[in-house]
Write a structure and sequence with these properties.
2 strands; 220 residues; Arc Repressor Mutant, subunit A; 10 helices; DNA-binding; two-stranded antiparallel ribbon; mainly alpha; 2 domains; homodimer; Four Helix Bundle (Hemerythrin (Met), subunit A)
DNA sequence: TACAACGAAATTGTATACCAAAACTTGGAG
DNA sequence: CTCCAAGTTTTGGTATACAATTTCGTTGTA
C-alpha cells in the first residue's frame, strides 16, 4: 500500500489539527507547508483542498486556508449528532453482536479500566476510541461506521471536555459496563439510553464547558 | 460572491454526477475535463481531490478518479443513516418550530401535492428537497442541517427508488400530511415514527429494489 | 494622535512545460 | 488463445511564471 505524498500530507495535517498542534484559525501557509514537507506547492494545495472539503479547514478564496475550530455552539451541535450516531450504532450492534464481538469489547473495557486506575489518560483515549470503533463495526452498517469514525475523530480534541468534570471518568466506565451488559442481554433500549447519556455533553454545566473550552482553544 | 474556477468545476462535477450524467464508475479524465472546462489540469485536479474526499468519486493512486456509485448494500446502509438523521431533525424541529415555519412547510407540501397531481416528477423532487431542507434548518442544529443535506444530495439519484413502487407517491404525500400535523401538535414521537417510515426503503420488497437499481445503474 | 489613501510586498490561483513512475495497450511469439 | 515485451498514455509532482487580490506599511493630512 504505497500512498501518495499528497494523501500523506493531508493525513498528517488532519492529525496535527485534531491533536491540537495546529489549532484555532491557524493559517496553513502553502509555501511554509511545502518546505516543511519537502515538496512543492502543488501536492500541498491538493491536501488543503481535501482538508477544507472534509470540514477541518476553511478555505477563503485568495485569502488562504485556516484551521477551522468549531465554535462552542457548533461543538454542542456536533456532539448532539455524534450521540445520535452512537445510539444508532449500539442499537444495530445489540441486534447483530456475536459473543466473540462482546468478548472483544469486554477486553477493551478492562484495558480502559486499568488505564483509569493508572491515570493514563493517553491510553484511556486510545482504547476508548478502539472500543467505540468496534461498536461502529459491529453495527454491520459500514457507511455508518465510516461516518461515525469521521465525526469521532473530528471531535477527538474536544472529547476531554466530557472528562474534565470531576468523577466523570469513573462514571464513564460505569456507563461502559452498563452498555456491555445490555449488549449481552440484547437489551437494545437500555444500551441506547445509556449510550446517549454517555456521549451527550448536555448534562455538563454550561460554565464548566465554556471554561474548559476556552482553556483548550487558547481563550484569546 | 466570485467563486473560483476550481470550486465551480467541483460543483459542476458534483451536479453532473448526482444528476446521472456521469454515472457508474465513469472515468474522470484530467485532460479531457480540462479541455471541457477550458482550464488547465491544475484546477481540475484540485476539484477531483475534493470530489474524492466528499465520497462522490474514488481516487485510485496512479490509475485515475472514477465516479463512485454505491453498491446496493451500501445504498441501503446510506438510506438507513439518512432515516436516522431525518428522524433526529424532525424530533428537534417538533420542539423548536414556530407557526411561521410550519406555514412554510404547509405551503411546500401543497406545491408538492400539486406536482403529484400534475405528474410533474421533476417539480416534485425539487419541492420535496426544499421541504426536507427546511426541516433540517428548523432542527436548529446547523451541523445536522449540513450533514443531512449532504447525504440527501448524495442519495438524490436513488431517491426515485422509493417512488417506483406503485402508489408510493400518494403514500408519501399522506406521510407528509401526518408529519406536518404532528409538528403542529408538537407530537414529536408521531412525527419521528412517520418520518422513519417515510425515508426508509426497508419496506420496499427486495426484488423491486434490485430491479429498479439495475435499471438506474445501467445493469451491465 | 487618529486616520485615510496610496503603493509595495506577499499570497493565492492558474498556466505551462517537463519528467518519472506506473498503468494500459498493442503486437507478435509460442 | 495465452503470454510477454516494447511502446504509449496517464497520473503525480517539480519548477517557473504571472495575473488577481489581499495585506501591510508608509505617507500625508486633519
Amino acid at each position: 500500500m504505497d500512498r501518495l505524498p499528497s494523501a500523506k500530507i493531508r493525513d498528517s495535517l488532519e492529525q496535527r489539527i485534531v491533536e491540537g498542534e495546529l489549532g484555532n484559525g491557524k493559517r496553513l501557509d502553502e509555501t511554509e507547508l511545502s518546505s516543511f514537507y519537502g515538496v512543492s506547492r502543488t501536492p500541498v494545495r491538493e491536501a488543503l483542498q481535501r482538508l477544507a472539503e472534509s470540514g477541518l479547514a476553511d478555505h477563503l478564496p485568495r485569502r488562504g486556508t485556516f484551521v477551522r475550530s468549531p465554535s462552542l455552539s457548533q461543538l454542542v451541535e456536533m456532539f448532539e449528532v455524534m450521540a445520535e450516531l452512537e445510539c444508532m450504532a449500539i442499537r444495530l450492534a445489540a441486534r447483530r453482536a456475536t459473543a466473540n464481538d462482546i468478548d472483544a469489547l469486554e477486553k477493551d473495557n478492562e484495558t480502559c479500566r486499568a488505564a483509569v486506575a493508572a491515570n493514563d489518560t493517553k491510553k484511556y483515549y486510545e482504547v476508548n476510541a478502539r472500543l467505540h470503533g468496534r461498536i461502529y463495526q459491529m453495527s454491520g452498517n459500514s457507511f455508518l461506521a465510516i461516518e461515525a469514525r469521521r465525526l469521532h475523530d473530528r471531535l477527538r480534541p474536544f472529547r476531554r471536555l466530557q472528562l474534565r468534570v470531576r468523577g466523570r471518568m469513573e462514571e464513564s466506565m460505569a456507563e461502559h459496563d452498563i452498555i456491555l451488559a445490555a449488549l449481552r442481554d440484547g437489551d437494545a433500549d437500555l444500551a441506547m439510553e445509556t449510550m446517549k447519556k454517555h456521549i451527550t455533553i448536555v448534562g455538563v454545566r454550561f460554565n464548566d464547558l465554556v471554561s474548559s473550552f476556552n482553556q483548550i482553544m487558547g481563550d484569546e
